[in-house]
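Suppose a classmate hands you a notebook page containing two proteins, each written out with its sequence and a corresponding row of structure tokens. How would you begin to make sense of it? This section walks through that situation. The first entry is reproduced here exactly as it would appear on such a page.
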Amino acid sequence: MNDGGHALLVEEVDVHFGGIRALDGVGLAVRPGEICGLIGPNGAGKTTLFDVVSGIRRPDRGRVLVDGRDVTRRSPAWRARHGMRRTFQRQQLFGQLTVADHCVVAQEWRGGGGGFAADLLASPTRRTHEARRHE
């Protein structure tokens, strides 16, 4: 494949985990404005491909181009700063929180009472709202 105006171009990507070939010569081309879905059974390599595209995993071979620029060796943070974002599928929000804490977090979308400054300064209003939520 050549770049030809693709927003995302994945060329001949291989990823191995020991003797297992997770990806073998995978290519993907997505044009600007195009919506692309990736489907397949468990173990087909979908997550591994997303890891390579987002920079979480470096391929054993091949490259990733974004808007014609080779980003294969760029970090996930660099890619994020330049517009490439990734979300993760998780069954829980925060591994270190209890179920009760997760419920409090879910209520936080309404605001903590007094805005950002109140959160930083732990204002009495903020503490009152937080105590009510914990109850």
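The notebook's second entry, a different protein, reads as follows.
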Amino acid sequence: MYATERQIAIERQLSSEGRVSVVDLARTFDVTTETVRRDLDALERAGALRRVHGGAVALDRTSTAEIAVAERGLQRGAEKADIATRALAAIPTGFRGSVFVDAGTTTAAFARALGDHLRAVGATAEVVTHSVPIAAELGARGDLALSVIGGRVRGLTAAAVGSSTVRAIESLRPDVAIIGTNGLATPFGLSTPDPEEAAVKQAIVESARRVIVLADSSKAGQEYLVRFGRLEDIDVVVTDAPLPEDLADALAVAGAEVWLS
């Protein structure tokens, strides 16, 4: 196989998977790791990818890359709905307490299903959120007790951020927090591209009695610019596919459960 053919194949794999490994590519193409590294260097110079330790990532997987909430809402809808349904088990029969719902598309799917679930299991909950879309949707229902945390709204995620938002969350002690994340990796933990979003998420994680992370399988192994939680902060990860072995083992050591949808 010529270098050009290999590089086209590498670009295709990046497009579908978001990340490639030098060792795996060398095995796939039956070439040396040095040859693969030269291919990756050439593709990086061409602006097709970004080199990282052990391989390369697509440009939309860099540590500060972020997709607007409206666009994310169109991606992996079935997986997110399944994760949200599985996560409802965190609100058991007879539950009486508070649930903080983080901003995000998978957490929004959870919020949409919560009212019917509460009625089905004879539970009641005070729902708290800093997400404008989630607050608007739940507020329109009229059958849930809802508190909204204010602040400056960040357009990309439609979520309140800033020091006043963080202070308001720090004054709370929700029984359950339903958290979204951009990245979930070992040993880095939970991460997101924006420092202000990270500060809000960290405040939610630190204030909650129980932390439930909703993360589809595309988030596994990803690391973004700012960490907002350690693996030890997580009680449950709800996802749609088995996690990479190193991450699953690290979560087990940290005392976190993994629920598959």
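A careful reader of the second entry would note: The two ends are 41 Å apart (CA to CA).
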